[in-house]
Amino acid sequence: MSPIYLKEDEVNNLITVSEAINILENATIARSEGKIWNQPRYRLPIRNGNYNFMSASWPEKNIVGHKSYTAGKNGASFHNMLYGCEGEGLLAIIESNRLGQIRTGAASGLASKFLSRKSSSTLGVIGTGYQSETQIEAICSVREISKIKIFSRNKEKRELFKQKMTKILGDRIIISNSLDEVSDGIDILVTITNSVNPVVTSEMILEGLHINAAGNNSWMKSEIDIEAFNRFNIIVTDDIDQSKIECGELIRAVERGYFSWDKVIQLDSVISGSVQGRKSNRDITLFESQGIALEDLAVSEFVYKRAIQNNIGLQI
Amino acid sequence: MSPIYLKEDEVNNLITVSEAINILENATIARSEGKIWNQPRYRLPIRNGNYNFMSASWPEKNIVGHKSYTAGKNGASFHNMLYGCEGEGLLAIIESNRLGQIRTGAASGLASKFLSRKSSSTLGVIGTGYQSETQIEAICSVREISKIKIFSRNKEKRELFKQKMTKILGDRIIISNSLDEVSDGIDILVTITNSVNPVVTSEMILEGLHINAAGNNSWMKSEIDIEAFNRFNIIVTDDIDQSKIECGELIRAVERGYFSWDKVIQLDSVISGSVQGRKSNRDITLFESQGIALEDLAVSEFVYKRAIQNNIGLQI
Question: Residues A51-69, buried b or exposed e (16+ Cβ, 10 A)?
Fold first, then answer.
């Protein structure tokens, strides 16, 4: 069979955020069983940016593949390629801007399902870009969230974001006018910015909070102030090897002696139950999301199978 | 502009072996000037085989990209993906079985141009598979080769290969019936087998010989007997980092103390002239060809540009 090519609008109709959370949960359990090989992202220089590549293999599901993209000041466009493991060769090329947004949201949803307090009802979000939408959707699908406080530096962007998200999630969105305001009285916090300087300080973190730090995948960037690392009862990351390359705030905190890498727990250990995530309602938990290849592989496989079932995509 | 998809038969009409040699020469010089980033191949496990990935970036030419493929007992199929460096995103997806055959031949052609004696007229070839064809074509395009001696274990395959190559290169192909016979009185030797056990022994190597060892890109495999490493005046490889991962015979020879990695010269140093390759007609020279990403990138760029000029390829 010849491979198929899937375009953004086709992909968007083939998977929901809540489906993606289940898919990532299954993939993460498979990883904890040693059934998935995940290769950290690497980057090669281009002009004013990077070429990015990350791959994973899941032989039990008969799939292997990668995501590749160039990213720089002129934007980014993402493609996932999916292969069979039995000599089938290339199965699909998938435009993956939307798919990346969905899987990144789903990763925070999954982490929140296992790390946040079950009674969590108020969510704070710092950053109102493209990626924030699926973060909120995903967390709302794992917890009964009645109030969503949003903040970003640009007042106009906050307003537009509120309008957009109110259409999707109803009348639960509240604009905050400062970092102090957005972090007050929340159970879960999402930071999804490109900030080079920390936006989350120790003072903003109350007992019981779960934080998803999802904006940071460059060692240059940092969303959480280094002093805050004294506050966390557990630090979880999607992939330790990749964090050592690109998670700026963990790299800096380790270098400065706040903790060592053996104290950082990989998400699959929490989800499989080999490591207990939250031990009490007073624990403060952190999930550092870089975005990893096995997430791309798992959602790509789902999208590919559904496309084939429904005869969607261009045969090439 | 939307990306194009190029199929095998289209690619075959867009580039010749001798064009590929010039392209690789230019790319190799660019590498010696620090203008190309080349990432060694890595492999992830699939069932009964591997998923393979290798990438390179050449910002000066505004291109970056990769080759990916699954390979195992059910065969392999290759794709190159090409991106712009200025936010153009994906430019082309290129089916690359033929292109890989051409670039691998061209690499041996290029190495032979710089390492073999100028007067070389007799070529010996061990291995008569798919990859041998372009090896011979490439060497014939850099040296005045009047006699091509071929050997492989399977007699029928040797006969068929002779018939096929005679059609392309005329009446210059001679079948040898043993390793001793094929190595007798030759100026250049190509080994392009999947052999786990060495096919080239020290006794087969005469003064003045240049060898292209092009069959070996797994640390499990070895085409040259370890004792022969005492004979070489220079050992050249397409990429030292990649050789340390996958060049079985170099890895073993270094481990056993025949030489150390700092004695292995990267091809771009020879081609740029920073290291002298052959110093006399009596020197014995070795080129270890793994096949590297910058070769794929360079020929892909050429094929892509020519396809666009001629309006070839499927717009996706």
Answer: bbbbbbbbbebebbbbbbb
